[in-house]
Transcriptional regulator, MarR family
Amino acid sequence: MPDLKTEIAQSSPFSNVEEEAILNLMRTSDFLERAFQQKMHGWGLTSTQYNVLRILRGARPEGLTCAAIGARMLTAEPDITRILARLKRLKLIRQHRDRDDRRVVWTQISDAGLNLLQSMDPTIRRLPVELLGHMKASDLSEMIRLLELARKPCRKAEAH
């Protein structure tokens, strides 16, 4: 398997090992995201829309506000409102205003959204094994630990 420098046809060395690690992480993330998007394509959803539907399925029956959905997203998404509007047009979610505060909009997954997720579940459940099943469980555990450790300074920066 070629190293990152070979993959991206870089002739000069990386500035430091941290740069190489971050670029490897970004490259791997992109590969995994594209594989996931390819699976999603048949259902006409983006991975972001799928993430929203999964979040809302987990928040049943109450649903969530736009801000609460945004806080639970895997990746930061600046325009949750636009994503929700598209899902609403597809009739995969329903929305209503809060009785006490009309500025607040609650979003719930619809029956159509639940049925779509249910049809997707078997394929989506197999995908992590297809993508990472070649790795030993101990390697995956170590990768998880290292990724969580790598996010630590980012969390501190967000808090300020």
Remarks:
- Helices lie at 4-7, 17-41, 47-58, 66-72, 80-89, 111-132, 137-159.
- The chain has a mean pLDDT of 92.
